[in-house]
Amino acid sequence: MEMAERTLDTMIETILSDPEKMKSGILRIVFPERVDVLHQIFMGSQPGSPNKNDSITKLETLIRKLKPTNIIGRIHLAQAMITLAKMCRNSGGEKLESAKDQANQAFDICIADLEDSFQWNDAAALRVLAQILMYAGLEYDAKISISLMLSKIDQYETIYDSDDSVVFSLDTPARIHARFWMNQRTRIRMH
Fold it and tell me: Is residue 82 very low, low, confident or very high in pLDDT (cuts 50, 70, 90)?
């Protein structure tokens, strides 16, 4: 793991130091790998080990460094944030507030991607949203998110509530559907 960590760190620093390399898009590949390595190191470390805190600090720094650059996709950033939230929650104590903050930021990114006018990013946003909802203990809602990712919605379909009253019809723009659904849960709950 140490070799992978050093290699990925070197690649990220090299890419960030050269604007031409930033344009290549390789950071979109390297960033998720680096997040995965940090998560693996965290999970493989003993409770209370300095490696756990080091992994959290490194991921926080990496996210903070890349967030304002717009080099990586927002959904990759949300994925990293939910990974960081899981790590912080696992650490407990003072990290619980950071876990909640990271999960809420990831949630906001997913909702923004669902509400924008682009449909190409909706499947990825729904996948990450499902992870966020699972993290928050909302398994039923996570299943809905996954099913929406895999479903083709007929534009003439009408959605009914449990008491058979019309909730909304699919004549309504998709961004309103996302907002309606997500307004059912105002913010992520911490268990």
Answer: very high
One-letter amino acid at 38 equals L
Say which residues have a Cβ less than 8 Å from residue 53's Cβ, sequence separation at least 6.
91
Separation of alpha carbons 113 and 116, rounded Å: 5
In angstroms, rounded to a whole number, what is the distance separating the alpha carbons of residues 82 and 78? 6
Report the 10 Å Cβ neighbour count for 50: 9
5 membership: H or E segment, kind and range: helix 2-17
Rounded to an integer, the average pLDDT of 131-157 is 77
Q: Calculate the CA 136 to chain-centre distance.
A: 13
Read off the pLDDT of residues 11-62 as tens digits, 9 standing for 90 and up.
888 888 887 777 777 888 889 999 999 999 999 988 888 889 999 999 999 9
Helices 50-66/74-91 angle, 10° precision: 160
* Inter-residue long-range contacts of 180-183, CB under 8 Å, 24+ positions, other chains counted: 181/144, 182/111, 182/114
145-to-11, 85, 127, 187 alpha-carbon distances in Å? 34, 20, 7, 16
